[in-house]
Amino acid sequence: MPSAAQRTRKVAVVGVSLSDCGRVDTATPYALHAQAARRALADSGLDRSVVDGFASAGLGTLAPVEVAEYLGLRPTWLDSTAVGGSTWEVMAAHAADAIAAGHARAVLLVYGSTARADIRAGRRTSNLSFGARGPLQFEVPYGHTLVAKYAMAARRHMHEYGTTLEQLADIAVQARINAGHNPDAMFREPITIDDVLSGPMIADPFTKLHCCIRSDGGCAVLLAAEEYVPDTAKPPVWVLGSGTAVSHTTMSEWEDFTVSPASASGRAAFARAGVRPSDIDVAELYDAFTYMTLVTLEDLGFCAKGEGGAFAAKGRLTRDGELPTNTDGGGLSACHPGMRGLFLLVEAVRQLRGEAGERQVRKAGGRLPELAVASGTGGWFCSAGTVVLGRG
């Protein structure tokens, strides 16, 4: 991504929204895309004619062409990058580059999924792997599921650094505390470390509450060039810097199970934004499993490698903690309809705007947060995208 000095135009997030989320039994994924898109446009105050860029993934044979057609859009800039949960941070980086370079005026990122409703209705079954072709053919026959890959990585961190199950469980507890302040969260009832540890085993060491929930839902984010900001309905949230990285697809090619590609994407994003991890007020991190939160905190530089368990303890990640993290409750408690990375951007923007209601983070003196980071993870730590956002 070009540095700020190289850009021809500044880029802002000017509209964000959620579709109906949680338990949505009567809508199609296309309908959730449309609902989120309409709401994001309304949130921005801009006319849809301004939108000439579109990015989507995960739906349709020719995504994003099918979704754009459903929405009645004819974009001249497209992105269909699909790298799992980090897709949306990577797309946001691409969109910001395109707008800065003058290739687009405004780019709409949209996602929607009925993952939960489809299983309940028998329209699909729960998948244990992403496929059995290519490099994955050497792992799938042995039953190495996606959750097992995360679990194995967590065990390695525990072995290397003495990280405890209680420390991992505390991350789930704090996510639930944050969800308790979010009326839209799917699960809001408080849980304890003992609740997490005593739950049914999914993949050792992960019990049920170490793992993300399954929900329905969608969201949308609209980015636009700086000249459109005076016409928007809300204060802009500026894209200050971003970074992307990949690591591996087969576990045998992962050099270190305790290091995620966020170590590279985060370093680039902070450098390009001209800020340090210690400057960040709010962190929105992909949390399909508790270990993801822990290792991403380390790899983004909020603490040293191996210190994530101790760093995340004592309520540090809650709304009122030193580093409010996954302030909506995250994928562990709020919603997780699949590739959740776009939800991270929505929540980060709402926090910086001061629109988060009961879960709003406040700095000393009641001031709003000024800087946020959204960092998505794809696959089983296969890819990462990190975006630094600033209020101004």
From TrEMBL:
| Pfam families linked | Thiolase_C_1
Gene3D superfamilies, per this entry?
A: 3.40.47.10
Q: Name one GO molecular function term.
A: acyltransferase activity, transferring groups other than amino-acyl groups
CDD domains reported for this sequence: SCP-x_thiolase
**Where do the Thiolase C-terminal domain residues begin and end?**
243-391
Signal peptide interval: none
The protein's name in its UniProt record: Thiolase C-terminal domain-containing protein
Q: Which organism is it from?
A: Streptomyces malaysiensis
